[in-house]
Amino acid sequence: MSATPSGTVGWARRVVGHTLFWPTAALVALLVACAVASPGFLDITVREGALVGQPIDLLRNSVTPLLLALGMCLVIATGGIDLSVGAVMAISLAVSLTYLDGATDPTNPVTVATAVVLGLVLGVAVGAFNGTLVTVLGVQPFIATMILMVAGRGIAMLITKGQITTVTSPPFKALGAGSVLGLPQAVVIGAVVFALVALVVRRTALGVLLEAIGVNRESARLSGVRARSTTWTVYVLAGVLAALAGIIYGAPTMAADANNIGLFFELNAIVVVVLGGTKLDGGRFYLSGLVVGALLLTTIERAVIIFQLPSTTTNLFKAAVLIALCVAASPRARGWLASRRTASSGPRRPEAAATTTQPSSSPSGASTASSSRASSAPPRPSTTTREVGA
Amino acid sequence: MKLRRLDARYLPVAGTLVTLVVLLVVGQARYSTPRQDFISMKLVSNLLIDNSFLLVLAVGMTFVILAGGIDLSVGAVVALVGLTVAQLFIAGWPAPVVVVAGVLVGTACGTIIGVLVQYFDVQPFIASLAVLFLARGAATVLGTRSLPIDDPTFSALASWSIRFGEGRTSWRITASILIALAVLAIAYLVLHHTRFGRTVYGLGAADRGNAVNLMGLRADRTRVWVYVISGTCAGVAGILFALYTKSGYNLTGVGMELDAIAAVVIGGTLLTGGYGYVLGTGAGVLVYGLIQVLNSREGLESWWTRVAIGAVLLAFVVLQRVIAVRRRPAARAVDAKAPPAPVPAA
Lengths: 390, 346
Fold this sequence. Notes:
Number of domains of chain B: 1
Helix content of chain B: over 70%
CATH class of chain A: Mainly Alpha
Strand order of the largest sheet of chain A: 1-2
Radius of gyration of chain A: 22 Å
Oligomer: heterodimer
Distance between the termini of chain A: 35 Å
Order of helices and strands of chain B: HHHHHEHEEHHHHEHHH
Distance between the termini of chain B: 27 Å
Shape of chain B: globular
Structural class of chain B: mainly alpha
Order of helices and strands of chain A: HHEEHHHHEHEEHHHHEHHHHHH
Strand content of chain B: under 5%
CATH architecture of chain A: Orthogonal Bundle
Number of strands of chain A: 6
Number of helices of chain A: 17
CATH architecture of chain B: Orthogonal Bundle
Number of helices of chain B: 13
CATH topology of chain A: ABC transporter involved in vitamin B12 uptake, BtuC
Shape of chain A: globular
Largest interface: A-B, 73 and 77 residues
CATH class of chain B: Mainly Alpha
Radius of gyration of chain B: 21 Å
Number of domains of chain A: 1
């Protein structure tokens, strides 16, 4: 692309072209719409040393999807998926609360810490199970994780003996409902965890390695990336983050309802990842997008209530958003868009097309497919259809 | 060496039959009484009555998995069809129209997945996951309580049966059994005796259906059709499930997709596609049903079934991988995304 745009036009184009432009714009628009529909929506007040208001609520509610999406995003970067996160939430909460229930003094901070650690250790175990299936046995990621997506709730029911375990423990409750320095404790935990993961992934080579694995596992392995252990670690991380999300989500009510905690939260996590600009094909991911995506998802949930739509439609909206985003990201839709743009407004940045290009280790079919994909708008060759396990 | 290959080819189905026999022997040993054998026509008839909807689901799923895809939406579609049917009866529609409309709801869901997969290049599990939530969401909009179905025609269909034998050993054939077996028979004919069936196998066999295309078979069209078939089967299964429970409820069928996939995998179809038998799927459904029967006879809580199904699926998936790795050492390198890097032989 020869004509590099400059000046204000170029700046505007860079902003609009940024991955996070549309999600952020949607978030702002939705918040404004909510504020118009419900005056006082954006007000924040201080009550008993803690900030109170709808925006703070939105922040707190965003923590669970953010933590889930954080693990999911890294798994997706390697070209996999983790469908078990919702069930893992249920299991970890069941373990923590069952331990607290059996403890002599559930208010003791040490007991609470042990309960939390137990829940997290369980997340490690579950993640290790998924990771082993995917990396050692080579089972397709969605089948490997679907086993626990469905059987996991059965396991959680075994742990709680089919009951809804409820306990009373103020320190445990504080994990989800308490506040630190005026901010909800959950938000602080979420921010710290997010920062830690972001630091490790983006300040070391790990992120690049994950993307290399996602683009082509075999060529990454041949280039010296320890694809197997890295992928395994990512599933473990996703398991721990899901366990943490379960504890934070369930802490305010302190009730382990194995059948309903985290039901459909896989959807939330995947929607957040896609909203944040990460494509589901793997090989490229944006962590900052997850924050915007999680806030956007939570705001959509809230907006449904504010606009007085039946709350039962929420999942319908989310699924529609997911489908729309998948379609918008598809080569065919991009092709249409590209041909219309090139026809009307001259050259466009090659970025969008370039992201679909995949380095291929083989000189056959795949490379011709990707190069024809990168050109403006050819009818997509059917060879690029990505079928499972093919 | 040749013998060994033969073994590997039939190992999945052999595994199915061994599992079936083991479960039957365990059942016979533990639950037979002097007056009544565990293994009987009554058992078979009950298995089919209780799992007719699952059989139909699994048959549809077989098409998709053979073609190298996956359909995670079927459980949600069953719930959506059940509620659609219930609401239409409440609205006073005649039974035949309601039944057709219910099946078409399933067809529509499958079509969405097929179009997303084929024309918008969405991975099958994401496309079907999106439709899972779409269908579940739509079902929730239609109603969050269990809606009873008390249409006289529908009830008559649900209770229609032919009875054989007398007393304890009597068994029966119901409309659901006939429908489910008919679906299985049609699927068998289509998959093993038509050009379409060969195309389905070809799609899943290798290189994303390229070879099939070069042979002049319509790979793209077929790929959409397998999802349409799976959705339609889910629609039929939704009707059968409504006949079975005589109600519609938005949380039915949670995890039914795992049951269907498990039945297909236990039945010897390779998850990577291109290899399997639809009649094996029928055996897989019987294994699934027997696990449930043994579970309840042992007096265990129902969620043990979930765990057991997960464990059995795990065992069969591992078995498949072992076979695959043995057959093609390069298969180890295959993952869900990238084609195996061909090592040039210099």
